[in-house]
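Repro:
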Amino acid sequence: MSERPHREPVRLLARGRLSVAVVLMLAAALFVISAREARDPATRHPQDLAQLVESESERVEELTGRVEDLGGEVLRLTAESDTDAGVSPGAVPAGFAVESGSTPVEGPGLVVRLDDAPPDAANADVTPDVLVVHQQDLQAVMNALWAGGAEAMTLMDQRVVSTSAVRCVGNVLRLHGRVYSPPYEIRAIGDPDALRSALDSSAAVRAYVRDSARVGLGWEVGVADELSLPAYTSPELDHARVPDGVEVLPGLAGGSGDDEESR
C-alpha cells in the first residue's frame, strides 16, 4: 500500500486545535484562582511597599509583646529560684564575684614564668626579637590557661579580668597603669592537669617553648597546691562618674551611680 503524505497536515491541524484548547483551559483555571484569592483577604499578600511595612510592623508589635511577656516570666522564675536557694535579693553570686575579680580567691593551679634569653645567647643566626618575651607570648599563655578552664588569674601579682589589656612597650610590660620588667609570672587557679594540657595543646605556646630550648628563653611551669590571688584593683578615676540614675550593677543594692563613683 502506498504512503499518503497529504494526510499529515490534517493530523497536525487536529493536534494544533487540541493544544489551543488546553492552553485556554489552563488560562481559565488560573483566572478563576486569581479571582478567588483577590476576594479572600486572608490569602492575599501585600502588593506594595506601604502594605508590606504595615504588615511587618504589626508582626513586630506582636513579637515584641511576646518577648516582654517571656522576659517577665524569666524574671519571676529567677526570683523564685533565688528565694528557694536562700539567696537574698541584691546578693552577688559567687561565680560573678570570682569572674569579675572583685574578691580574693584561693585554690590549686599552675605558676608559669617567662623570661628573656641571657645576653650571651645572641649570635649571627638568631635575630634579637627571638631573644625577648613579647606581648603575644604572654597572651598565648594566658589564652591557653583560660581555654583550659582557669577560674582566676594574675599577671605579675595583678588580677586579670575581662577588661585587662596586656601591652609590651619595648622590653617592658604595661598592665593596669604599672610597668614591669621580665621575668614575668602568671598564676592561674584551676585543675592543674587540664591547665597543663591546654598549654601543651597551644601552637603559639609550643612555638615559644621551641625557642626556649633553642636560644635559652626562660620557661617554667610549676604546680601549686594552694594559690592565693588578690582581688582586682581598678585605677582611681578622677573625672569619670556614673550618670545619676544609672545602675552600675542592675539589681544590686546601692548599685546606682547617685552616691558612688565608678570603680
